[in-house]
Fold this sequence. Notes:
The complex is a heterodimer of chains A (114) and B (111).
Chain A: E1 4-7, E2 10-13, E3 19-25, E4 31-38, E5 42-51, E6 54-57, E7 65-66, E8 76-78, E9 87-94, E10 104-105, E11 109-113
Parallel strand pairs in A: 2-11
Antiparallel strand pairs in A: 1-3, 3-8, 4-5, 4-9, 5-6, 7-8, 9-10, 9-11
Chain B: E1 4-5, E2 10-14, E3 19-25, E4 32-38, E5 45-51, E6 56-59, E7 62-67, E8 72-77, E9 86-93, E10 99-101, E11 105-110
Parallel strand pairs in B: 2-11
Antiparallel strand pairs in B: 1-3, 3-8, 4-5, 4-9, 6-7, 7-8, 9-10, 9-11
Amino acid sequence: EAQVTQNPRYLITVTGKKLTVTCSQNMNHEYMSWYRQDPGLGLRQIYYSMNVEVTDKGDVPEGYKVSRKEKRNFPLILESPSPNQTSLYFCASSLSRGAGSPLHFGNGTRLTVT
Amino acid sequence: DQQVKQNSPSLSVQEGRISILNCDYTNSMFDYFLWYKKYPAEGPTFLISISSIKDKNEDGRFTVFLNKSAKHLSLHIVPSQPGDSAVYFCAAGTSYGKLTFGQGTILTVHP
């Protein structure tokens, strides 16, 4: 089954403790991206990647890191999480770089930073 | 600066009637516009899209209209069904990969 898989689904952590949210897709998609969803703000793009070893900042990249060493994986790294990073995170992928290529989303990771 | 805005946080309609969801944007560089639907505890799923060279696109009960001069797009659902109850996000994107979403509109379709 074609899908985007994020892990974990739920995560509670403390300020400053490094964490990684994994994302994997099995559709051989070139483009991958991370979003956060917050009430009243919709989905905001954190980072995106056009292809392996190519990443770029989205609208809210501060406090996050990403890497794209393999085509299928695009982990999101929070080196020193803070409470304002408490949010619902979505990973997504699409066949090509163009915005007209629809995104396939994972089911989300709800992160709480205390 | 919110480049894509959905000014109605919620919309309630009766089953069988038309649902119209609206979206405004400010950036003339956007090439494509898309609508996504999101159910609770799931990721958004793609619904329908339109490129900037068109003004209308239909897919079954869903039609998207684009008014470039007004920088406005809308999603029409006819007829609305209870299963359409979800959060709807409009999104606008450029050819180099940047995609910007609106805040979302909660649609409730009453039986």
